[in-house]
């Protein structure tokens, strides 16, 4: 531990086969709003830990799969009650280790709760379909079955809701899981697993490993006895996981990755609404949402007014310790994020952008020990090859890109290798329909920010943002496989498609 740090508060452990286990080596968990403060020490899990957790999940799978779906759902009902009981504690933990302001951290806990309620509610929904056969005496069924052992690998920026988007449907459908939270936010992941144990999930159904992605995460993603990898995080890691799954002969994966989302401000937009939408989309969570807007694509006729109001309002946003009253957002997560954001801010200048606001590193007395960076806003004409308007920055970095007609706005929007979230601000119903149909995205919004999902919708992107396996409500398709099942009620055999059953006695 470095000099001047406080005593650790959290001592993390891994949870494997129903037992809490210490690890040989540990990692420090630091407060991003005050990096001198060590919040806890957490296991630096190994490939052997990953293997033990996968073995425990495999052992627990047969009994869990045979448990009534309704009974599995009832455990989520208990979990919902426990989350409601602990909502303030969970929000405080999340705010401390992720830097998300406490009001937003609470909203994330509520989002996790909503997922748990949704999962519980769907327990009594059909698990398949009954369809007609061309032979009157046959019944045909389509039934979903669990796939087996699911590895859940999650990012630091939604460390409570995103794990539940994946753990919830996986477990309800009868899979067993190994959960690896980000090493930036291990405590909130641990508290979630503690609540799941308290709710009564049997030993081995939920296992928790901690540590570095390239060590324990990689070992999990490679493990031959993992059937599905549910991953949310950066494109680089997601792409690696997709390749591992492709090389396996049975493993599948659901990957939700980065973005270069945008708010499109049309010529008929309400200016006040457009500015609100842009500010929330670009700077909430300090620009560290997967759906954060890195671009405001603005009709040239509104440009001057939009830029002036946007910058004025952005200057007044408070970036502070997550527990500060009135704070709009907190710090970045770590030093490498600070370096990356400042590098992209500098790159915008190199790419000849017109810088409209550069708040830089916020290092006054109250913030100099945290990873605080304020809004950076610049105007950039769209042109081929510019990196800042195409690559994910994951910080408070916003390009204002002018356009002259709707066709051009769509071309600008689609000119990135990502496709996660899009908002269009317009009063014209024909216009938003055009954007709805022509833009590449997974989540679309009209007269709203491009952030703000709800759990009963699919959450997933296209291009580099996702592999076509959305999360939240839609995850069920990734963690089950559809089987067909045909039952004959006749006394003899009649084949479909008019084929004669030649083997039968005449
Ligand atoms: P990250 O990719 O660095 O890490 C995500 C998880 O993967 C962590 O648990 C990490 O330990 C693990 N990991 C890292 N290397 C690994 C490896 N080689 N094998 C297996 N696991 C490995 O992402 P992050 O910094 O935690 O999160 C930010 C990124 O996540 C951004 O790009 C953001 O856009 C994206 N994100 C996407 C969504 C979405 O739904 N599309 C949601 C939230 C965040």
Provide a short characterization of the protein structure.
36% of the residues lie in helices and 23% in strands.
Structural account:
The relative contact order is 0.13. It contains 14 helices and 24 strands. It folds into 2 domains: 10-257 and 466-484, Aldehyde Dehydrogenase, Chain A, domain 1 (3-Layer(aba) Sandwich); 261-454, Aldehyde Dehydrogenase, Chain A, domain 2 (3-Layer(aba) Sandwich), CATH 3.40.309. Helix 2 (69-85) packs across helix 6 and helix 3 packs antiparallel against helix 6. The strands form 7 sheets. A 7-stranded mixed β-sheet has the order 15-16-17-14-13-19-20, sandwiched between helices. The protein has a 5-stranded parallel β-sheet with strand order 10-9-8-11-12, with helices on both faces. It is an alpha/beta fold and 506 residues long. Helix content is 36%, strand content 23%. The model is unreliable at 1-7 (pLDDT under 50). Strand 8, helix 5 and strand 9 form a beta-alpha-beta unit. The structure holds nicotinamide-adenine-dinucleotide. Residues 153-158, 162, 180, 182-183, 213-214, 217-218, 221, 232-234, 237, 240, 256-259, 290, 392, 394, 420, 459, 461, 465, 471 line the site of nicotinamide-adenine-dinucleotide. Nicotinamide-adenine-dinucleotide binds at residues 153-158, 162, 180, 182-183, 213-214, 217-218, 221, 232-234, 237, 240, 256-259, 290, 392, 394, 420, 459, 461, 465, 471.
Essential attributes:
506 residues; alpha/beta; Aldehyde Dehydrogenase, Chain A, domain 1; Aldehyde Dehydrogenase, Chain A, domain 2; five-stranded parallel sheet; 24 strands; 23% strand; disordered N terminus; binds nicotinamide-adenine-dinucleotide
């Amino acid at each position: 531990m470095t000099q001047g740090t406080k005593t650790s508060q959290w001592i993390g452990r891994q949870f494997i086969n129903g037992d809490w286990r210490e690890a040989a080596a540990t990692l420090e968990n630091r407060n991003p709003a005050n990096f001198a403060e060590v919040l806890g020490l957490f296991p630096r899990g190994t490939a052997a830990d990953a293997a033990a957790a996968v073995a425990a999940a495999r052992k627990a799978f047969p009994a869990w799969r045979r448990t009534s779906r309704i009974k599995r759902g009832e455990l989520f009902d208990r979990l919902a009650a426990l989350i409601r009981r602990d909502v303030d504690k969970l929000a405080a933990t999340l705010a401390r280790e992720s830097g998300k302001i406490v009001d937003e951290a609470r909203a994330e806990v509520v989002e996790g709760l909503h997922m748990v309620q949704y999962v519980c509610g769907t327990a009594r929904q059909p698990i398949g379909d009954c369809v007609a056969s061309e032979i009157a005496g046959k019944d045909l069924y389509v039934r979903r079955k669990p796939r087996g052992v699911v590895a859940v690998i999650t990012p630091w920026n939604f460390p409570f809701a995103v794990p539940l988007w994946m753990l919830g449907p996986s477990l309800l459908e009868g899979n067993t899981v190994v959960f690896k939270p980000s090493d930036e936010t291990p405590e909130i992941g641990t508290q979630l697993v503690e609540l799941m144990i308290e709710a009564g999930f049997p030993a081995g159904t939920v296992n928790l490993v901690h540590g570095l992605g390239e060590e324990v995460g990689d070992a999990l993603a490679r493990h031959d006895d993992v059937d599905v990898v549910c991953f949310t995080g950066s494109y680089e890691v997601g792409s690696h996981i997709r390749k591992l799954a492709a090389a396996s002969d049975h493993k599948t994966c659901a990957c939700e990755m980065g973005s270069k989302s945008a708010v499109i401000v049309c010529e008929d937009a309400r200016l006040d609404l457009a500015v609100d939408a842009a500010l929330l989309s670009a700077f909430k969570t300090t620009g560290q949402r997967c759906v954060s807007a890195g671009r405001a694509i603005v009709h040239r006729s509104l440009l001057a007014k939009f830029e002036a109001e946007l910058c004025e309002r952005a200057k007044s946003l408070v970036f502070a310790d997550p527990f500060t009253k009135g704070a709009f957002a907190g710090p970045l997560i770590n030093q490498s994020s600070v370096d990356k954001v400042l590098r992209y801010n500098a790159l915008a200048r190199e790419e000849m952008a017109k810088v409209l606001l550069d708040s830089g590193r916020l290092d006054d007395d109250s913030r100099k020990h945290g990873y605080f960076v304020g809004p950076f806003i610049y105007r950039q004409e769209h042109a081929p090859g510019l990196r800042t308007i195409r690559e994910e920055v994951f910080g408070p970095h916003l390009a204002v890109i002018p356009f002259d007609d709707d066709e051009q706005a769509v071309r600008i929007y689609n000119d990135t290798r990502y496709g996660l979230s899009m908002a269009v601000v317009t009063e014209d119903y024909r216009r938003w329909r055009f954007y709805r149909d022509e833009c590449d995205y997974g989540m679309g919004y009209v007269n709203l920010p491009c952030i703000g999902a709800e759990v009963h919708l699919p959450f997933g992107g296209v291009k580099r943002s996702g592999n076509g396996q959305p999360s939240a409500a839609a995850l069920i398709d990734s963690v089950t496989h559809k089987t067909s099942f045909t039952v004959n009620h006749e006394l003899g055999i009649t084949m479909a498609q008019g084929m004669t059953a030649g083997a039968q006695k005449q």
